[in-house]
């Protein structure tokens, strides 16, 4: 697990090469504000090898955050992350590793009959109750999430992960009420609180696509304050003084700035944005889709681009994401070593100050 001493030592090793606030507080330690993502790419050996090289380059170049999930690239991404951490000239306890559970994974490749694979692997011979399965591939029930966590630890080859996310719980809203989803989240949070207490995970949270950035009238909305209330209740149930729910992940970029612009959550008598509420609740925020899955590497809207620093559009797009108030780290895909070097170098430029960031939206 990442430690205070090791992450600060990592910061001392690389910090002089970056701009102000490149390294930011995360728990008792620090993390780079550019993180390495592992979502995109085909489930092939060639892509595995490229990812491994790129992740090692990132870790050895000043980026100590890696984000993955049990289902990414048919389960291959977690295995590559484990190999990269083992192969990099960086201590394991200097690296913050995050993974997720919710989407049921394949094993290295897409099976000929995905539905049959899920049924045989996870339902008939596994932890998933058919009543908890949505869309044939998504389950956040306690037994399932705990089994997926164990699968992730095995794939990563690690004793602990630093942050574990329940993955896109809004998927359950396709067939369930919000009340039922909150109930299931609380039950799963109880399991995760126990795994925090046992030292298997450092902290946990929720990774979303829509849930926290859309307004209450949207079918995919979940209330961030209510989710945190459920986590606090789960901690109390298992006898912990404080909840281990400490982080959220959501999309944020120039074209998907809803987490800042949309007042999606009722909090303390008023409607506030996801980023504003996360700040008040002392949650770390990790942004996905910081480059719009590559689209923003080709250019940004001129008015926004003019306000940002960076040598390339990709760097300026990353600096937009990590300039948002309350953002701890902006995640970006890491399957190409040259792209990783370019993206990490975004951190050599200072982010926008609060006034300049606000001005982008005026």
Looking at CATH, the homologous superfamily is NADP-dependent oxidoreductase domain
Strand count, sense and barrel status of the largest sheet are: 8 strands, parallel, barrel
The total count of helices amounts to: 13
Order of strands across the main sheet? 3-4-5-6-7-8-11-12
Structural class assignment: alpha/beta
How many E-type strands? 12
Query: From the 3D coordinates, which CATH architecture would you assign?
Result: Alpha-Beta Barrel
| Average pLDDT reading | 96
What integer value in Å does the Rg equal?
19 Å
SSE topology string: HEEEHEHEHHEHEHEHEEHEHHEHH
- Named CATH topology: TIM Barrel
Percentage of residues in DSSP E strands: 15-25%
Shape: globular
Protein name: Aldo/keto reductase
Domain NADP-dependent oxidoreductase: 34-211
Organism: Haloplanus rubicundus
Pfam families: Aldo_ket_red
What does the model show?
This protein has a single domain (4-359), classed as Alpha-Beta Barrel (TIM Barrel). 38% of the residues lie in helices and 15% in strands. The protein contains 13 helices and 12 strands. The strands form 3 sheets. An 8-stranded parallel barrel has the order 3-4-5-6-7-8-11-12, surrounded by 7 helices. Helix 2 packs parallel to helix 12 (337-344) and helix 6 packs across helix 7 (224-237). It is globular. The N and C termini lie far apart (42 Å). The mean pLDDT is 96.
